[in-house]
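One such given next:

>
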Amino acid sequence: MTIIKPKIQILDNDHKKLIFNEAKNILKTQGVFIENQEAIELFSQQGLNYKEQRFYIPPDLVDKCLESVPNEIILYDREGKEHILLKDDQVHFDPGSAAIFILDEKTGEIREAISKDFIRFSKIVEQLNYIEAQSTALIYQDVPKDAQDWHRLFISLSNCHKPVVTGTFRKDSFSIMREILLACRLSEDDLARKPLAIFDACPSPPLKWSDLTTQSVIDAAKSMIPSEFVSMPLAGASAPIALLGSITQHCAETLVGVVIAQLAKRGAPLIWGGSPAVMDMKHGTTPMGAIETMMINIGDIEMGKFLKMPTHAYMSLSDAKIPDAQAGFEAGMGALLAGLAGINMISGPGMLDFESTQSIEKLLIDNEIIGMVKRFLQGIEDYGSPFALDILKDFGEKEELLSHPSTLKLFRKELFFPSSIIDRKTRDSWKKLGSKSARKRAREEANKLSNKTPIKPIDESLAKELKLIVSKYLR
């Protein structure tokens, strides 16, 4: 029996209610700018007041749409097996999406990625025990720009069986990506019942939903594919500098997505997510490793839980340019705080430099961090009292407890055993093995993992079908 599971909280219930009501008031009085014609038609059918393309959403419509959002999402792997549950405080991690650079392990240089980089990345993600979902993590330059969205999904599913967090940068990408997903399922109904992918949707702060982002939400809703809202208020620049103000703006922008999706199809699965940041007033940057950014994220998540929706955040990433001490402490703090907040889907492992760069070395180090976080979240277990009295009585006989029955019975359950990336050897043993840093050990581990046999090799007929889809559209 667990005594208590550790947890963290930033907002009290009174402030959650105040934020929610103010967010609805913002939508009622200030409205939201909508670019997408299909969404404009959905809003017009509801008789909403508008001025040009700014629509004013009444609170009762927000409340009605929230009622039909599912409070849990089960994600399935490529083969249709249940994989992870997004609900309550269940915590899962995926690498962040759409980095435009990769840190080259051989040269130590940050460069543009090519498809071979992403193939290797996906193969390694499949081997990682504690990162339960993959993502279309890298934008690579050796395919045409109009193919990049769906080609990344093709590479992901061809090389890793885990469910994937993805998204579109072109409106016409969704139908091809849906076709790729359908190749992994028996029918449209099977895809709806066993979702394989989450589509990120990023509104533009403040209070604007672009044509592309809105269309993605509508298309996903019609197919009952989960959308993950990634509102990005920048405190001090495109959002209030006060953290509560930024959390309130995030709430308002995300509620718009709820309304759009539920008007498109009632009951569409949604995830309350985000990638907020604070503006660094010295350097004009958007630090994802700033403690205030993490605080906004946790506040956002508490609002999502208040509204009984599955949750997401960008955490466990770093603004460092290499996997150094800064990368370690920013990723570690973010992962632990995200776990304590009970975020259902946490994006960020592997990411450096303000979400712009993926590092396989950091990805493997982050996987170890996540393993420790998951052990921490298990809490301290009560095996019955007395807790120590009887065991200590036995110490007198041998003056050690290594061979004690309780140690032999429980040590594998009580202790987290990291991989060789984490050094717990003696100094002499460390020297004999080359005095290697964690980064170098991660680099060596990456080479091993990239050459391992896939955990779930892709079925030959499915691989062939996916290649046929690609050849049909790739110009």
Q: What stands out?
A: The CA atoms of residues 178 and 429 lie 52 Å apart. Residues 67-378 form a domain with the TIM Barrel fold (CATH 3.20.20.480). DSSP finds 17 helices and 22 strands in the chain. The radius of gyration is 23 Å.
